[in-house]
């Protein structure tokens, strides 16, 4: 994906259901590298698999953030069924079993995830002078029109 800047205001389409899944880790003990590094290095293989098999897996898009102690990946999925099917897939199960075997209940590293099932018409976004980003990668990137100038209008399903 290129990072061309789109001048002006853009929004997303919101005509389909989607799932937003956040997953990440927190390094609680910085010097316990042997505990948190396996968690950190497990993700690139899964990300590669998702990006190479998007249509088949129902995976739409991803954004990554790395802080001093905490990482987060914001992912967008076609459906909760697709997300749950991936969680039972070979790469994820292998990483999860490896995590439990190597790290278990150590307090050196924390992991988390959050899942949001969002119905069509119940999400909106605005991008000003930005590349195609986040939800726009997953749901479509369109110029803001007079009909979609305000968040309240973008949240409408068009059926009122």
From TrEMBL:
Listed InterPro entries:
Dimeric_a/b-barrel (IPR011008), Monooxy_af470 (IPR025444)
What name appears for this protein in its UniProt entry? DUF4188 domain-containing protein
